[in-house]
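Reopening this one. Same input as before:
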Amino acid sequence: MSSQAAADVDPYSDEFLAEPWDGLALIREAGSALWLNRYGVWAIARHDDVMAALRDPDTYSSSHGVGLADLAVGEPWRRPSILVEADPPQHTLNRKVVAGTMTPKALRSLEEVFAIAAVRMVDELLARRTFDGVHDLAEPFPTEVFPRAFGIEITDETRRRLLDYGSLVFNGNGVQNERFHAAIANAAETIAWVTATCARDALRPDGIGAAIHEAAEAAGLTPDDGALLVRSFLSAGVDTTVSGIAFALRNLAADRDQWQLLRNDPSLTRNAFEETIRRESPVIGFFRMTTRPATVGDVEIPAGQKVLLFYAGANRDPRRWADPDHFDIRRKVSGHLGYGIGIHACVGMVIARMEGEAVVGALRARAQRIEMTAPAVPRLNNSLRGLDSLPLVVEPV
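Same output, byte for byte:
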């Protein structure tokens, strides 16, 4: 394992986390797989190679954790996910339990709830004319509609805890730097809240959370397993969606031509959010562990190696996408890896898409103009891209 040209790229530096695109391009062009000396891990950033790894769970295991740390070594700072950080056959059973609760009827009901909430929030902001796209819309929307959908009581504490938990999980996937230590400073308190909130008795009986518990019990899983399955959605349906909505607002506000295309054609609403996920990749990447030697292009990765699969690198790979840095809401985005792919594709992606489409659709229908009044400020996180603020001005129709 020799040093290579891009081996000094630090995926946890402030510079990389704020704007990872140059670093990801260096990794992609250095080879199919690159050894990162700083962390003793491999990195893969080309679209076809990342996709192939995600579709090969027998070679690229998730049970050692999707973060930098090996969950098989030492005591993890939190209980591993029995979905994200599990391999078949355990994963197969657990995924089936969860999938059975996402019925067409349940999703249609959520779509209506999301649409009503999005219109209400957008109308309130249009009355103000100026607002912060992150704090006034991208964060409040998911932290209201997600708890409602899952049967969780909506309070100020609920909103705060959900955001704290997402920061904890995604920072915890990285190196033990200042962001990691800041996130886990109150980890015990946050995790205790999450554990209590995901318990069956704490959830309304008409929500998705209760349905997951019921399905878990029917499949022979324990009440603790049911709570862990509910917990799996807390980041998938909240933090990644917060980031996706914020980036969608920024992209549309920064490009008048794309905004006008959307205004003229409401059928582009869903694709506008999907193109945002492709271009911005809220989840920068997740790790896998090789269970056997893996050949990636002309590189052989030995067994027992941590491999960082860069979703963000794959989603802007010019081998797959024409002009990949450009935001184009008419682009055919099928094949993007913003939600992952294969057996570990994001468990909350259907809900995330519905949330994003509801907000973008409400804004498209009710705002004639949207522009930034100041540059967006990035929010640095070890594995989740996001914005800290996004000053906007809007003009009602």
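So the earlier flakiness isn't reproducible anymore. For the record, The chain has one domain: 14-396.
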